[in-house]
């Protein structure tokens, strides 16, 4: 479902500003817009990966270096223990 949504967004972005173009110019414009749109969609995905995978892994590593288990570390959200 995520792939379908991404493809729909890219197709919509590729259609922007394509009026008056035809042939190779239209194809080049659509490819350029699709690549630009996909780049803009990958930037937040990269930030999410960093925030949800890299940062917690680094916290676990630091906790292990201090001799604690990951369960003994402080939670990211203080109220999450309830």
Task: Please outline what is shown here.
With about 80 residues, the protein is mostly helical. It has helices spanning about 1-15, 25-65.
**Overall domain count:** 1
Radius of gyration: 22 Å
Largest sheet: none
Instruction: Give the number of DSSP strands.
Output: 0
Helix content: 55-70%
Instruction: Give the overall silhouette.
Output: rod-shaped
Beginning-to-end CA distance, first to last residue: 33 Å
Poorly predicted segments: none
Number of helices: 2
Order of helices and strands: HH
Beta-strand residue percentage: under 5%
Broad structural category: mainly alpha
Average pLDDT score? 77
Could you explain the architecture of this structure?
- The protein has about 80 residues and is mainly α.
- It has one domain (about 1-75).
- The protein has two helices and no strands.
- The chain is rod-shaped, with a radius of gyration of 22 Å.
- The protein starts with a helix and ends in a 17-residue tail after the last helix.
- The model has no long low-confidence stretch (mean pLDDT about 75).
Record keyword descriptors for this entry:
82 residues, mainly alpha, 2 helices
